[in-house]
Amino acid sequence: MATDPVCGMAVDEHSAELTLVRENRSYYFCSTSCLEEFAAPARQLKRIRRRLAVAWPVSVVVAGLTYLAPFPAWPWAALLLASVVQFYPGAQFYRGTRDAIRSRLWNMDILIAVGTSVAYGYSAVALLLPGRLPTEYFFDASSLIITLILTGNYLEHFTRERARGSLRKLQELLPARALVLRDGGEEEVELSEVRSGERVHVRPGGRFPADGVVREGHSAVNESLLTGESLPVEKGPGDRVIAGAVNGEGLLTVEVTGLGEDTALAAIGRLVTDAEMSRVPLQQLADRIASVFVPTVLALGVLAALGWYFLGGVGLTVTLLVFVSVVITACPCAFGIATPAAIVVGTGRAAEEGILFKGRDSLERASSIDLVITDKTGTLTEGRPSLAELLPAAGVTSEHLLEVALSLEMGSEHPLARAVRDAGRARGLSAALAEHLVAEPGRGLRGDRGGVPIAVLRGQAPETSLPEELASSATRLDSEGKAFSVVYEAERPLGLLAFTDALSSGVPAAVRALRSDGIEVVLATGDRENAARTIAREAGISDVHAGLTPEGKLALLKEYQGRGRKVAYVGDGINDAPALAAADLGIAIGAGTEVAKEAGGVVLVRSDFRSVALALRIGRRTVGKVRGNIAWALGYNSVLLPVAAGVLVPVFGLRIFDVLPITGALAMGLSSTTVVLNSLSLRFVRLSRSDR
After folding, report:
1. What are the residue ranges spanned by the domains of the chain?
2. Which residues are annotated as catalytic?
3. What is the pTM of this model?
4. Per CATH, which fold does 171-260 belong to?
């Protein structure tokens, strides 16, 4: 069985007539109103507002006529006005009933249509055919019931649409045209005419029309709408950019890598939609209840009415009111939206922070995590090494040491090479690219500079081939957990380049937040012991496992799982793919434009470890709200349906049925709205100030 994405009712996809295909995915609906809200929510809200603009003033007049009776012919005026409400604002419930019958479904529109039609129809017959029925009129009840329920629907739709957040609007931010470089010039074309692999200019202040890689220029790019990162990110040749981001003050030449549905923006939209549509296992109970709820309520209404008629000795008027009260008070929608309301708000809140839940049960799995295993490089650290120290040998200047290294690193895309180039640029140094460049995998680079052989080779303490002062420095750097390279010229060591990959600023706060939530953190890395422990000490992590291969990380993860722990693994989504897949919850951090390709149940667009703590917190709170919503729906119907059936008659007498239909309608609308409002509190889930 499929699920209506709006009201949560179960729909048989094989017999359903109301369907919509969006982004190559089929959606199934129990009623036309649900279809219209999903397809065009803003238009549906306007339509409901127009109906309420008629329903409220007319219903108030009908109620005034009923209780004030200003003139003898008031029932005829009430009939005319009640007919307007019954067949204009109330028309959507009749259409929903028709759709349900066609699709052989049971939805809440049936209860509303049946209940109001009985009250309205009885009153009309009593007026038009005097003497056939007791002279009682319930035009006020039928009108106010429709008005109150429609008001509840409006509040529910309004809060639901507000809860979906801003991601659905991001696609509208893309520019309609792009500046493409063709035939040696710049040509402005429609975005649909741009092809992958072409180069485009993005001027200062302009939005990126596609995902791509910067080939020329430097600029600060604002990606806040996509990643939540408030500060602009520096971009230069080789850096990736995302469609929809805003360029800063520099002109950039970008090679297009993704367009339309292949962009990170589209991938994020698909992930958010999938998450909103997900059904946590808890929802299975609600689905089973909702599928039998409507026929059960109709049967209960008939049995209660007949019981009072035959056993209680009441008249036909009270019998009618008993049936209407039971049918109108019931709220199957509360069961249906128990999960969607919480998930829509929870995933929307997460998406605002660049947290994307993938898969049908990732939220539920996130709620049960009690241990986090994390990689180091690019996860706890910034993932962009910087040159921390220049340690020249005796008689060698720092400038000469760096110039020799620059000659080799100008031709490399290795992270350490970028650190050397950044340092050279900061010092205003430049160097010609070395000749006969040869890379030694895992070791470094060799080449010639002016006919003299030079090399930059990865160092490892103790270095017995180094002069004493450099060997001592190498030992110190190793003990501090810093990587270093040795620069050679004519086989002579010129000095050391020391690198550091700094701990990301938010990591200690994230570790504290996880611990405050009862979640233990373990560091598992392939790096050296000293480097791992240095980072772990700064982060506040005591359990460290260094020198691990991908297989070793997987074995460690399974060891913890064997102890009964629910483990989340945090990594880059590529090298750690086996562990991400085997974990109870895989969290791919810093996914950027590869968001759709990463492994794991959660993708963090931002490279901020605090998002790990927030993702798990949102998962727990969201599932908690689902449980609370289901409990509310069960409690509401368990308490109020017996009241509607007459359990309080011994206390208040039969006159209680004069108000039960209207109060039942008010309670039903408030029940659904309460579920949505309870879910909306998820928008305020965040890390506390002490955790930031």
Report:
1. 2-163+278-344+621-684, 171-260, 356-381+504-605, 386-500
2. 375
3. 0.74
4. 2.70.150
